[in-house]
Amino acid sequence: MKRHIDHDRFPEWRPFLDAVQQRRPDAGTWCEAWTVRDVVIHQAGNAEELARVLQAHLEGNPVGTRGFEEREGPLRALGDAELWDALHERMATLNDVATAADAVPADTDVAWTGRTMKVPWFAEHMREELVLHCWDITGDDPAAQARLAEPWMTTHSVTAVGRPLLAKGAKGLREGERIEGRLRVPGDDDVVVTADADHTYIGMAGPEGPATLETDAAARVLLLWGRRPGNPSRICSDAGPETLGQLRRLLSGY
User: Fold this and answer.
1) Close Cβ partners of 63 (under 8 Å, ≥ 6 residues apart)
2) How many whole angstroms separate alpha carbon 179 and alpha carbon 128?
3) Rounded distance between C-alpha atoms, residue 180 and residue 250, angstroms
4) pTM summary value
5) Sign for the pseudo-dihedral over CA of 123, 127, 128, 130
6) Which of 11, 28, 86, 90 could form a disulfide with 47 if both were Cys (CB 3.0 to 4.6 A apart)?
7) Rg of the chain's alpha carbons, rounded to an integer?
8) Could you read off the pLDDT of 156-182 as tens digits, one per residue?
Protein backbone atom coordinates (compact mmCIF):
# COMPACT_ATOMS: atom_id res chain seq x y z
CA MET A 1 0.00 0.00 0.00
CA LYS A 2 1.46 3.34 -1.07
CA ARG A 3 2.02 6.07 1.50
CA HIS A 4 -0.34 9.04 1.51
CA ILE A 5 0.21 12.15 -0.60
CA ASP A 6 -2.13 15.02 0.28
CA HIS A 7 -3.80 16.20 -2.93
CA ASP A 8 -4.83 19.45 -1.25
CA ARG A 9 -1.17 20.20 -0.54
CA PHE A 10 -0.04 18.96 -3.97
CA PRO A 11 -3.04 19.40 -6.29
CA GLU A 12 -0.77 19.05 -9.32
CA TRP A 13 0.32 15.53 -8.35
CA ARG A 14 -2.62 13.68 -9.91
CA PRO A 15 -2.46 15.49 -13.29
CA PHE A 16 1.26 14.72 -13.47
CA LEU A 17 0.66 11.05 -12.71
CA ASP A 18 -2.07 10.87 -15.33
CA ALA A 19 0.18 12.45 -17.95
CA VAL A 20 2.99 10.00 -17.23
CA GLN A 21 0.77 6.93 -17.15
CA GLN A 22 -0.75 7.75 -20.52
CA ARG A 23 2.64 7.60 -22.26
CA ARG A 24 5.49 5.16 -22.76
CA PRO A 25 8.56 5.74 -20.57
CA ASP A 26 10.67 6.23 -23.70
CA ALA A 27 8.30 8.78 -25.27
CA GLY A 28 9.81 12.17 -26.04
CA THR A 29 8.84 15.40 -24.30
CA TRP A 30 9.06 19.16 -24.84
CA CYS A 31 12.03 19.21 -22.45
CA GLU A 32 14.91 18.93 -24.88
CA ALA A 33 16.53 15.47 -25.02
CA TRP A 34 14.40 14.13 -22.15
CA THR A 35 11.99 11.23 -22.33
CA VAL A 36 9.06 10.69 -19.96
CA ARG A 37 11.33 8.40 -17.93
CA ASP A 38 13.93 11.17 -17.63
CA VAL A 39 11.23 13.52 -16.34
CA VAL A 40 10.17 10.95 -13.72
CA ILE A 41 13.80 10.55 -12.62
CA HIS A 42 14.14 14.31 -12.32
CA GLN A 43 10.93 14.60 -10.29
CA ALA A 44 11.89 11.81 -7.91
CA GLY A 45 15.25 13.51 -7.38
CA ASN A 46 13.57 16.88 -6.81
CA ALA A 47 11.19 15.48 -4.21
CA GLU A 48 13.99 13.65 -2.42
CA GLU A 49 16.28 16.67 -2.27
CA LEU A 50 13.61 19.16 -1.23
CA ALA A 51 12.59 16.81 1.61
CA ARG A 52 16.18 16.08 2.62
CA VAL A 53 17.20 19.74 2.87
CA LEU A 54 14.02 20.89 4.61
CA GLN A 55 14.07 17.96 7.07
CA ALA A 56 17.69 18.69 7.97
CA HIS A 57 16.77 22.31 8.66
CA LEU A 58 13.86 21.26 10.88
CA GLU A 59 16.23 19.00 12.81
CA GLY A 60 18.73 21.83 13.31
CA ASN A 61 21.41 20.16 11.20
CA PRO A 62 21.45 22.01 7.84
CA VAL A 63 22.89 20.27 4.78
CA GLY A 64 23.97 21.55 1.40
CA THR A 65 21.95 20.94 -1.74
CA ARG A 66 23.23 18.11 -3.90
CA GLY A 67 23.57 18.55 -7.63
CA PHE A 68 21.29 16.87 -10.15
CA GLU A 69 23.69 14.08 -11.07
CA GLU A 70 24.33 13.07 -7.46
CA ARG A 71 20.66 12.74 -6.62
CA GLU A 72 19.47 11.39 -9.97
CA GLY A 73 22.30 8.97 -10.73
CA PRO A 74 21.06 6.15 -8.46
CA LEU A 75 17.54 6.55 -9.85
CA ARG A 76 18.75 5.93 -13.40
CA ALA A 77 19.83 2.43 -12.39
CA LEU A 78 16.26 1.47 -11.43
CA GLY A 79 13.82 -0.37 -13.67
CA ASP A 80 10.64 1.40 -14.66
CA ALA A 81 8.48 -0.22 -11.95
CA GLU A 82 11.09 0.47 -9.25
CA LEU A 83 11.43 4.05 -10.45
CA TRP A 84 7.67 4.54 -10.25
CA ASP A 85 7.68 3.28 -6.66
CA ALA A 86 10.64 5.56 -5.85
CA LEU A 87 8.75 8.60 -7.16
CA HIS A 88 5.74 7.81 -4.96
CA GLU A 89 7.92 7.15 -1.92
CA ARG A 90 9.88 10.38 -2.27
CA MET A 91 6.76 12.45 -2.84
CA ALA A 92 5.18 10.91 0.26
CA THR A 93 8.27 11.78 2.29
CA LEU A 94 8.18 15.37 1.02
CA ASN A 95 4.50 15.49 1.95
CA ASP A 96 5.35 14.42 5.52
CA VAL A 97 8.22 16.90 5.84
CA ALA A 98 6.12 19.75 4.43
CA THR A 99 3.38 18.92 6.92
CA ALA A 100 5.88 19.04 9.79
CA ALA A 101 7.20 22.34 8.46
CA ASP A 102 3.77 23.95 8.94
CA ALA A 103 4.84 24.49 12.55
CA VAL A 104 7.78 26.68 11.46
CA PRO A 105 7.28 30.44 10.83
CA ALA A 106 6.54 30.90 7.13
CA ASP A 107 9.19 33.60 6.70
CA THR A 108 12.01 31.29 7.88
CA ASP A 109 14.88 31.18 5.36
CA VAL A 110 16.44 27.86 4.41
CA ALA A 111 19.56 27.52 2.29
CA TRP A 112 18.90 26.02 -1.15
CA THR A 113 21.26 25.88 -4.16
CA GLY A 114 23.28 28.99 -3.48
CA ARG A 115 20.34 31.06 -2.23
CA THR A 116 17.61 30.80 0.38
CA MET A 117 13.96 29.84 0.12
CA LYS A 118 11.14 30.43 2.57
CA VAL A 119 9.89 27.26 4.25
CA PRO A 120 6.55 27.12 2.35
CA TRP A 121 8.40 27.49 -0.94
CA PHE A 122 9.78 23.95 -0.68
CA ALA A 123 6.38 22.36 -1.26
CA GLU A 124 5.48 25.14 -3.66
CA HIS A 125 8.62 24.50 -5.67
CA MET A 126 7.67 20.85 -6.07
CA ARG A 127 4.23 21.95 -7.20
CA GLU A 128 5.84 24.18 -9.82
CA GLU A 129 8.04 21.33 -11.00
CA LEU A 130 4.94 19.16 -11.37
CA VAL A 131 3.16 21.82 -13.42
CA LEU A 132 6.12 22.60 -15.65
CA HIS A 133 7.12 19.01 -16.37
CA CYS A 134 3.51 17.97 -16.87
CA TRP A 135 3.46 20.53 -19.69
CA ASP A 136 6.70 19.00 -20.99
CA ILE A 137 4.77 15.76 -21.39
CA THR A 138 1.37 16.99 -22.59
CA GLY A 139 2.20 20.20 -24.42
CA ASP A 140 -0.33 23.01 -24.70
CA ASP A 141 -3.51 21.22 -23.69
CA PRO A 142 -6.08 23.49 -21.97
CA ALA A 143 -5.57 22.03 -18.48
CA ALA A 144 -1.78 22.40 -18.67
CA GLN A 145 -2.14 26.00 -19.84
CA ALA A 146 -4.57 26.78 -17.02
CA ARG A 147 -2.13 25.47 -14.40
CA LEU A 148 0.75 27.45 -15.90
CA ALA A 149 -1.37 30.61 -15.92
CA GLU A 150 -2.13 30.59 -12.19
CA PRO A 151 -0.62 33.78 -10.68
CA TRP A 152 1.43 31.91 -8.07
CA MET A 153 3.37 30.20 -10.86
CA THR A 154 4.73 33.53 -12.08
CA THR A 155 5.37 34.77 -8.54
CA HIS A 156 7.29 31.63 -7.56
CA SER A 157 9.29 31.61 -10.79
CA VAL A 158 10.37 35.22 -10.26
CA THR A 159 10.77 35.31 -6.48
CA ALA A 160 12.04 31.85 -5.60
CA VAL A 161 13.76 30.71 -8.81
CA GLY A 162 14.51 33.89 -10.73
CA ARG A 163 18.22 34.18 -10.09
CA PRO A 164 19.22 30.66 -11.18
CA LEU A 165 16.85 30.90 -14.15
CA LEU A 166 18.97 33.76 -15.52
CA ALA A 167 22.37 32.33 -14.61
CA LYS A 168 22.87 30.09 -17.65
CA GLY A 169 21.93 32.76 -20.19
CA ALA A 170 23.98 35.43 -18.44
CA LYS A 171 27.13 33.32 -18.78
CA GLY A 172 27.01 33.88 -22.53
CA LEU A 173 27.05 37.68 -22.29
CA ARG A 174 30.10 39.50 -23.58
CA GLU A 175 31.94 42.16 -21.59
CA GLY A 176 29.95 45.38 -21.87
CA GLU A 177 26.83 43.65 -23.20
CA ARG A 178 23.63 44.45 -21.31
CA ILE A 179 20.12 43.08 -21.71
CA GLU A 180 16.97 44.76 -20.46
CA GLY A 181 13.55 43.27 -21.01
CA ARG A 182 9.92 43.54 -20.00
CA LEU A 183 7.65 40.53 -20.38
CA ARG A 184 4.08 41.80 -20.33
CA VAL A 185 0.75 40.10 -19.78
CA PRO A 186 -2.24 42.45 -20.18
CA GLY A 187 -3.78 43.29 -16.83
CA ASP A 188 -0.77 42.07 -14.82
CA ASP A 189 2.53 43.47 -13.61
CA ASP A 190 5.48 43.14 -15.97
CA VAL A 191 8.29 40.70 -15.35
CA VAL A 192 11.41 42.86 -15.61
CA VAL A 193 14.83 41.34 -16.31
CA THR A 194 18.23 42.96 -16.63
CA ALA A 195 21.59 41.29 -17.07
CA ASP A 196 25.19 42.07 -17.87
CA ALA A 197 28.37 40.05 -17.52
CA ASP A 198 28.50 40.70 -13.76
CA HIS A 199 24.93 41.06 -12.50
CA THR A 200 21.40 39.83 -13.12
CA TYR A 201 18.04 41.04 -11.84
CA ILE A 202 14.50 39.74 -12.16
CA GLY A 203 11.43 41.20 -10.49
CA MET A 204 7.85 42.39 -10.94
CA ALA A 205 6.90 46.00 -11.71
CA GLY A 206 3.88 47.89 -12.97
CA PRO A 207 3.56 48.20 -16.74
CA GLU A 208 5.61 51.15 -17.94
CA GLY A 209 6.78 52.07 -21.41
CA PRO A 210 7.00 49.58 -24.26
CA ALA A 211 7.19 45.86 -23.54
CA THR A 212 9.92 43.76 -25.09
CA LEU A 213 7.29 41.12 -25.67
CA GLU A 214 3.63 40.61 -24.81
CA THR A 215 2.06 37.23 -24.27
CA ASP A 216 -0.34 35.33 -22.02
CA ALA A 217 0.38 34.25 -18.44
CA ALA A 218 1.01 30.59 -19.29
CA ALA A 219 3.41 31.36 -22.13
CA ARG A 220 5.30 33.85 -19.96
CA VAL A 221 6.02 31.16 -17.37
CA LEU A 222 7.24 28.88 -20.14
CA LEU A 223 9.56 31.61 -21.42
CA LEU A 224 11.00 32.17 -17.95
CA TRP A 225 11.89 28.47 -17.84
CA GLY A 226 13.55 28.47 -21.25
CA ARG A 227 10.58 26.93 -23.06
CA ARG A 228 8.27 28.00 -25.88
CA PRO A 229 4.53 27.52 -26.37
CA GLY A 230 3.60 25.32 -29.29
CA ASN A 231 1.96 28.26 -31.07
CA PRO A 232 4.57 31.03 -31.58
CA SER A 233 1.88 33.62 -32.38
CA ARG A 234 1.08 33.73 -28.66
CA ILE A 235 4.26 35.83 -28.30
CA CYS A 236 4.05 39.31 -29.83
CA SER A 237 6.86 41.86 -30.06
CA ASP A 238 7.95 44.89 -32.05
CA ALA A 239 11.30 45.19 -30.24
CA GLY A 240 13.17 43.87 -33.25
CA PRO A 241 14.99 40.58 -33.80
CA GLU A 242 18.23 41.61 -32.12
CA THR A 243 16.63 42.73 -28.85
CA LEU A 244 14.12 39.89 -28.79
CA GLY A 245 16.84 37.38 -29.62
CA GLN A 246 19.00 38.64 -26.75
CA LEU A 247 16.09 38.25 -24.32
CA ARG A 248 15.27 34.76 -25.56
CA ARG A 249 18.92 33.70 -25.18
CA LEU A 250 19.00 35.09 -21.63
CA LEU A 251 15.86 33.11 -20.79
CA SER A 252 17.38 29.75 -21.62
CA GLY A 253 16.46 28.05 -18.33
CA TYR A 254 18.75 25.80 -16.37
Assistant:
1) 52, 53, 56
2) 27
3) 10
4) 0.95
5) positive
6) 90
7) 19
8) 999 999 989 999 899 888 888 899 999
